[in-house]
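thread from #wetlab-drylab

HS: before we spend reagent money on co-crystallization trials with BES, can we at least see a predicted complex? here's what I'd submit
DV: go for it
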Amino acid sequence: MLLVLGRRVSLSFVKRVNPQDPVLFSKPILLNFRTNIFRVIHSSTVFASVTRSNYTDTMPERRPFVRLPTDVYPVNYGLSLKPDLIDFTFEGKLEAIVEVTLATNQIVMNCADIDIITASFVPEGAEEINATGFNYQNEDEKVTLSFPSALQKGSGTLKIDFVGELNDKMKGFYRSKYANPSGEIRYAAVTQFEATDARRAFPCWDEPAIKATFDISLIVPKDRVALSNMNVLDRKPYPEDDSLVEVKFATTPIMSTYLVAFVIGEYDFVEAQSSDGVTVRVYTPTGKAEQGKFALEVAVKTLPFYKDYFSVPYPLPKIDLIAIADFAAGAMENWGLVTYRETALLIDPRNSCSSSRQWVALVVGHELAHQWFGNLVTMEWWTHLWLNEGFASWIEYLCVDHCFPEYDIWTQFVSADYTRALDLDALDNSHPIEVNVGHPSEVDEIFDAISYSKGASVIRMLHNYIGDEDFRKGMHSYLLKFQHKNAATEDLWDCLEQASGKPIAQVMSSWTKQMGFPIIVVNQEQQGDDRILKISQKKFCASGPHEGEDCPNWMVPVSICTSEDPGCTKLKVLLDSPETTITINNVSPDQWVKINPGTVGFYRIQYSSAMLESLLPGVRDLTLLPVDRLGLQNDLFSLLHKQADMQEEKNRIERVLGAISAPDLIQKVLTFALSVTSLAVISDLHNVCCHEDVKDETNAARELPLHCSVGLPFYAVVS
Ligand code: BES
Ligand code: ZN
């Protein structure tokens, strides 16, 4: 049984693909779909298709939802927490400076699984008013504090004393179990607030657009490490108990509640200064500091990369990256204190394979990108989450490619995110990247491979369409204009439009607001020295064309290269209609023409037989780049099952694929693929072939990114 787009998968499945990490999947799998994708890519044992129908069938009905009232908003949270790592409870004191914009005798805040003991309001320069009632709306995760008289317009301090449980649900403020080096079981207290779980640690305005500063203090056992978003200002004995200390952290910049974090536990660390003066630490389980060195190297390279790329400095004095024993997601970008699943941060220098190092580099690159894109400029509402995650899922590759060019990481992107997104988005029950989100329970639903992998793929296409220089200009003005504020998807399109002079909003909404993608059908004709291409678009559906339905159109950036220079785009056009004719000047009859060099466009291509045949020499002599051969091969396999005349298709594909990969392997693939009708099996076969291709390409030159698992189960099936 596979559930949601690869994010929630059956334990039997994940256990099989995850030999490195026995604890990983013995827990509920919440948010680690990218971790799973990674695992899937590093295995070819997956012979099941994922559809969204079983997902939508079981989806709860949309609940009514209203955002918090705006008559009272926070300016600063003074928050003190005292966790008890034996009873698994915590005590909290909140002193929030708030602004009342409209006189009211009640304050509505988010609050879940917390008991409020006392609450009062102190208007600036006036008498304290005790709250007379706390009305919990549990379904809505809110509490209404009632006051006997109206709180007048102006500033005041809201004081709340509360208690909560250090839960075992890996959300909110929770306990994480670990064994210390001598094997004793211990617990750390950890937070995971995204998307809407800060309200489980303290009463707050838990919406991304309600930003405030935070002054955090933690009262903890004196032998424990205590971390939060900012640097420590003071660590002093706690007067009421000499086994405890009070750790006070510096004031944060204005920020959203979902990015607040604290960790209390036993950790070692390695430290370095990045060239731009930021103190970087990687915290590891005690005795494993050496395993943090690789992530430290990545972080120290990554921070200056983003600073240069965005032309905006990292705004905090420090950043900590910490490996947490029990962690639901792969990693979380809390500002200044990034939390990771252990396998996404730690590298054993003696035993880890290069694919693990690549994964750590990507995850660190992803979370550090959020420090700007997400943390400094935050989405206005969860509807724009796809942009947050899609952008970080694209730029993590740009960053890793810059820091570790030897990884050839873009080939991994094509073979992982891009092809996966195409496969999923071709299903009838896919969904648009951008979906309206209301109730918190819906937020979790949209963290799926469409947000991440299609999101990253369309940003990659956009970057290619705009060009790096204008893209950077647009990013810089977006980050500058909205820093310490919130923005919507359209705000980014506006900035990129200004920087490039291109119709970005129009182009992008065709990709984000409608599900699916087109197949580009291409025919060619030689006219003297010119090559005339007839190109048309129609929706690509894995289940075949849907007769009688309106055919959607996309605004498709199409680029074209020729055998004269296979690595270089000769012509770019924007296909904004169902079909068009393009003239490419000065292409001699013996040259081949290829669409989509670099495999950056989010579409499939169906060439005429003659065009496909003409590409064969480029495939054979390897002048077509690996990502281009990968894209070609992937398109052909996805088209295979749709062809009525299987024999003709078999011959055609055999010739091209035979040249791309080892011929005897392809023979087996085709014999097997053509003997079955299941799309799932065919698409799994093409995954295997793509990886085999990459493996052949890279085998001699360097350590293999995919060496652990490619191919073997497949041979077992076909032989
Ligand atoms: N912000 C997310 C983590 C997250 C998502 C937390 C949804 C809570 C709800 C983080 O930036 C992320 O995307 N993490 C990925 C790993 C990453 C390398 C793609 C994850 O956890 O799978
Ligand atoms: Zn992310």
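DV: The CA atoms of residues 319 and 336 lie 4 Å apart.
HS: ok that's useful, forwarding to the group
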